[in-house]
Amino acid sequence: MFLWILLLLLILVVFGFGFTMQTLWWVAAVLLVVWIVGFTRRGRGGGRRRYGRR
Questions:
Q1: How far is CA 3 from CA 11, 12, 32, 43, in A?
Q2: Where are the transmembrane segments (predicted)?
Q3: Domains of the chain: which residue ranges?
Q4: Model confidence over 10-38: pLDDT tens digits?
């Protein structure tokens, strides 16, 4: 009986870890896209402002 409970807990841990890793991949991809969009927008706007003041 103890081995069945241990096996069930192991399966739940592995399943939860796999789900978490898949979710973290999606979160990382979304954050990368947001970072790239923010970097390109800030790069264009900041460049014009900096040279416009001089």
A1: 12, 14, 43, 59
A2: 26-44
A3: 1-38
A4: 888 888 888 888 888 888 888 888 888 88
